[in-house]
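retry 2 of 3: previous attempt timed out while embedding heme C. Reduced batch size to 1 and resubmitted. Inputs unchanged:
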Amino acid sequence: MLRGSLAYPFLLGVLCFSTSQAVAQPGATEPPEAYKSIFQPLPMTAENPANPLTPEKIALGKSLYNDARFSQSKKISCNSCHLLSSYGVDHQPTSNGHKGQRGSRNAPTVYNAALHFAQFWDGRAKDVEEQALGPIMNPVEMAMGSETDVLGVVKSIPLYVKAFKKVFPEEQDPVTFKNLGKAIGAFERTLITPTRFDAFLKGDPKALTPEEKKGLALFRDLGCVACHNSPTVGGQMYQKIGLVKEYPTKDLGRYGVTKNEADKYFFKVPSLRNIEKTGPYFHDGQVNTLKEAVTLMGRHQLGRELNDEQINSVIVFLKTLTAKPPRGTVTG
Ligand code: HEC
Ligand code: HEC
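retry 2 succeeded.
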């Protein structure tokens, strides 16, 4: 594997130089089965029985995803903020939307998002089908005035009308807002990025290097896995930012949706898939490096000051969650 063979000797050199006892740490020889109850390999696609995947629907969703005609300025598409060629993010703390306006939150990656238990940092949309309709109307994102305006765009493009008929053949008038969400959602359900970590979880102990396995064991033993688990290594629960030690932020997170006192400062635990490539970090995009993100997690979520050796080891593991760009999607 090209990426692995280039990165590994360098990392190994750094680790051996800085920590002679690291070699003797546990974890390097633990078998994949040891992690069965914590992580599972990614599926090929994120299935939704209410929105069955067909090649035509996925292709339609991909066109819509990339089409800036669904924005008031005709300049912004989903791909403006979730660049498929940049691991599904824009690398901005907060995104540039309609007329350069910025929201208050960082754009999460669309890769593997369909597998999350809810969408958005505060979980205000239940799935990618529902989520996809939000930004089109959001005044600081694509800023379309009404559903009628959006459907007017679809209807003005004969190729789309034809495609909607083909994708939803059983419907009299298939050009609906809901079907637009279904098509974009179907495309997003294919944006799944397995890596060597999945090969490891499937039973190949050699898919990860000893250093990477040490990092994985440390990630577990520190307690990161209490929140970052499952195939997406996150994305399956809400948790308070600043659980152990208060974290300064004005954003009340999930509270904004439920108005329940107990939900203040709760956010959806982000997936750590491709985390190496999706900075800046946290809901407000204020954390620039992975090193800083891991340090803050230790401090605020676990009440621990992690040392450099621990932080570097965790990062060695986190990098195994970086996918090689899949053909036709991540193309960078
Ligand atoms: C102007 C930038 C912008 C545009 C355009 C945009 N998004 Fe987003 N997207 C964001 C931001 C910012 C968030 C996080 C907002 C929040 O959580 O409150 C987000 C969240 C999401 C999420 C949730 C992911 C997760 O892990 O919770 C998905 C999925 C998504 N967008 C898909 C899309 C799709 C599909 C489109 C096009 C229809 C789109 N976005 C257009 C900026 C954008
Ligand atoms: C109690 C739950 C919990 C624990 C334990 C936890 N995290 Fe997190 N993690 C979160 C939440 C919630 C966020 C989102 C914080 C925010 O954006 O304000 C997060 C965010 C992150 C991010 C940034 C993700 C992004 O896309 O911006 C990284 C990296 C991360 N965690 C790694 C770790 C590591 C490494 C550990 C162990 C040292 C850990 N976490 C322990 C809940 C947790």
